[in-house]
Write a structure and sequence with these properties.
By secondary structure, the protein is α/β, with parallel strands linked by helices. The protein is built from twelve helices and 17 strands. Helix 5 crosses helix 6. This is NAD(P)-dependent alcohol dehydrogenase.
């Protein structure tokens, strides 16, 4: 079938809306009409690394309505309203253990530009267009996805507002609720309150974390963080960021989350912990960094990595939806909606920081 997709053709070329060909569903695949899709920093990073000779359709925070299902798909039917998340194989030991975000085939299924057999369902004039990005490639009017990427939701769920739940939101929120698991007597410092950091903040407030500190370079973002429940906001450009966090948390944070993937900020996050505190990293930045070992051996601090919130989306996304329904997760306060045709405006606003979480609406 012919669909409209935002094709990335190199780092310095804007997305172009093009007519491309999408294959019919294979036995284990589902065809979804995309209603909305979030724009995530990972989309933009991927666009920057795929060369012009490898055009790709990214997008991995899709939401929509099922059009067709493959012959082997069960539990999903045409007309179902769905949120889309990352792909996992379902067969490896990590998937079997309930940790699909650490799937042994994660890279192949999500970032290789194709399915597990390295084919792509997308083409243009007979030439391959890279796809299957995070199992989705949802910057398109339709997406062909593995059944495991689908979370079926009630028809009254706002698909536009909740589209980002499948990646950025569950990454930040899951890092707090599933990895850190702080309590009412604990403190949390969040370094970087973009979309992922804001999701972490809202989740921390939803579960009643005692003290929440937000650190960012943007005064506008810090104002939103304050509105969403941050007890203390700190300008990340200040020379005494670590001292301010320690003072705000009465001796250092029990937990810290870094969303920036910047080594100097990560170092501050580690330093701002109290003894036995834990720093969780969710971003991808430099391949290596220096760590002051005394923080670990002398104070019992820990650094922990986290992919997609370390959650099972089939269980965690319903929790996010419940919080949203109860008013505990006001994602609308950090979102701005754009028509699909204005995708490059949405990207520009995200890069300059004027929009925290852009969401594209498909016609």
């Amino acid at each position: 079938m012919e669909i409209t997709a935002a094709v990335a053709r190199g780092a310095h070329v804007p997305f172009s809306l093009e007519t491309v060909t999408l294959e019919d569903p294979r036995p284990g695949e589902v065809l979804v009409r995309i209603v909305a899709t979030g724009v995530c920093h990972t989309d933009l990073v991927t666009k920057s690394v795929f060369p012009p000779e490898l055009p790709i359709v990214v997008g991995h925070e899709g939401a929509g309505i099922v059009e067709r299902v493959g012959s082997e798909v069960t539990g999903i039917a045409p007309g179902d309203h769905v949120l889309l998340t990352y792909a996992s194989c379902g067969d490896c030991p990590r998937c079997a253990a309930g940790t699909p975000s650490y799937c042994e085939n994660f890279v192949i299924l999500n970032t290789s530009g194709g399915r597990s057999d390295f084919t792509s369902a997308l083409s243009k004039d007979g030439e391959r267009v890279m796809g299957a990005f995070f199992g989705q490639s949802s910057f398109a009017s339709y997406a062909l996805v593995p059944a495991r990427t689908i979370v079926v939701v009630d028809e009254d769920v706002d698909l536009v507002a909740t589209a980002p739940f499948g990646c950025g939101v569950q990454t930040g929120a899951g890092a707090v609720t599933n990895v850190m698991r702080p309590g009412p007597d604990d403190s949390l410092a969040i370094f970087g309150v973009g979309g992922v950091g804001m999701a972490a903040l809202m989740a921390a407030r939803a579960i009643g974390v005692g003290t929440i500190v937000a650190v960012d370079l943007s005064a506008e973002r810090l104002a939103v963080a304050k509105e969403l429940g941050a007890d203390v906001t700190i300008d990340g450009a200040a020379e005494d960021v670590v001292a301010q966090v320690i003072a705000a948390t009465g001796g250092g944070a029990h937990f810290a989350l870094d969303t920036t993937a910047l080594n100097p900020v990560i170092a501050k996050g580690l330093e701002a912990l109290r003894p036995l505190g834990t720093l969780v990293l969710v971003g991808l930045g430099e391949a290596t960094m220096e760590v002051e070992i005394g923080h670990l051996t002398g104070n019992g601090k820990a650094i922990r990595g986290c992919i997609e919130g370390s959650v099972d989306p089939q269980q965690f996304i319903p929790q996010l939806l419940a919080w949203h329904r109860e008013g505990k997760f006001p994602i609308e306060k950090i979102s701005k909606v754009y028509p699909f045709a204005q995708i490059n405006d949405a990207v520009a606003d995200a890069e300059r920081g004027s929009t925290i979480k852009p969401i594209l609406i498909l016609p």
